[in-house]
Please model this.
Amino acid sequence: MRRSAKVILYGGFAAVCFMLAVVLGRPEIAALGAPFALVLVVGLSLRRPAAVRAELHVTRERALEEEEVEAELVLAPEEGAGVVRYALCLPDGLQVAGGHDAAVVRLAGGRERTLPLRLVCRRWGAYRLGDVILRTEDRAGLRSRDTAVRGDSFLKVYPRPERLHSLIAPAETQLFAGNRVGRSAGEGIEFAGLRPYVPGDRLRRVNWRASVGRKTLFVNEEHLELNSDVVIFVDSFAEVRGSDDGTLDMAIRGAASLAEHYLANQDRVGLVSFGAFVRWLSPAGGTRRLYSIVEALLQTEVALSFVWKDIDVLPRGSLTPHALVIALSPLLDERGVNVLLDLRRRGFDLVVVDVTPLAFAAEGRAEDATLALRLWSLWREALRYRYEQMGVAVVEWDGKAPLAAVVEEVRAFRRQAHYIYA
Amino acid sequence: MAVLLAGGMAAYPIVRSSPSLLRATIPLAAVAFAFVVVAVVWRSQVVGPALFVLTAGYLVVEITGHAGALSVIAYAVGLVMLCELLMTYRALPMSGVVEYRVVAERVLSLVALGVGAAAVAVLVLFAGGWWSAGALEAGLIGMAAVVCLFALPWALVRHRR
Model:
């Protein structure tokens, strides 16, 4: 509990007036100070400000970006509290869309009060909610009690998924059944060719039309329907942020969307978050893997680190052989750039989505600033060319174009590359 | 509302002062009004200086002449109301809302405060104008003054216990 500035001001003013009245022998001056003394005497005789508890209840634990979540702020007085001033401290990624995050309310009759709120999730992340600062005052405003409540509600905001019409097809498939047409022949749907009948072949596979012409039995061969491993590589060494978005935000959104679509396509998906903190998830399939990938992505953050890291810090199981590695990187940190080059040298099928920081770089007015920006963009172009020379598809993504356009661009590059390197 | 009240209270000594005192009252009124404006616009803690300067301007005029009882009571009520308005405004949240019931309650308490302040001012003026030669009455008044003198510090420190 603390005293208001009013106590000193009113007390000082009343004392000065009373002293002047005595010294000058003028009761009128005492009459000017008397109301202030009255406020002090009456106000300090009133009940002290009561303590108030606050709790924030969120109706859901999970939400998507841009979704709205209903919440309730419950204010409960420990004694008969009157007027309560509260300020709800929300994390940066959340905003109040309905209700008030700061207000002065009255708790009538000392009963608890529930204030409805509607929160809008602006940015992905795992948030702890419910930090509230409360202030209660006595009726005269002479004493106040401040209380800081630490919240214990949690809300996970998942990145907004992007719609993808097609996916980047991996160069190699794995051994498990899936939706991709494998190179090897076997039993599937896509016709691969004909071969002479051998004992053990099922009769339903015999191609009677071809067999009649050649006077011997031929059977159809199909491509095997297999799955593939996809490893999503998020470079979190550095980022460039704008006012409400940044390269890491874009990378996380892209990674979550890609993981969701590949898992829906029966592929196995793994994750490598490579930065100051290295996190990985070995490729696996299913809905559980989707949740574990998104949970891991929510914990991804850019932290300052000078430790030199290369691909050797990753365990063997995190990058399975013949896996397609899709890297989402702003290509800002030399460590991230070198790791991607190293992956390609080790024979991984690599795609680099350059989450360009140029979209967030403000163009300076000075001639030097313009020149520096041009030099930087030229340097980035040279870096992308270096990747392309190694057969890596590199596509710039500024966040304005949908991720589907990036995927189509990669697919076009890989079709072209197929003709060149075939 | 506080600015209007402050404007009226700052102008009052200028209206009542003789031409020879205008050189003192006008600067005091201007400074007091400026303090109130600063307190309203920037929510700064200059309510104290505004209060003291306003009182100084009033005293300059009223000490040199005859202070009417009604004028003293009105000015005393005005001073305390102005301070309460400025303090209440300063305590309002920068962003956020104040419930209608809270505002209504505050207005009622301000009205009650105004009535109480006027009553106290009347009481003080009445006590100041009452003269008695009797030892018994003088003793009783002295005891009442001592009680009042101790009541204020007691009320100030009571919440610490």
In short: Residues 132-161 of chain B form one domain.
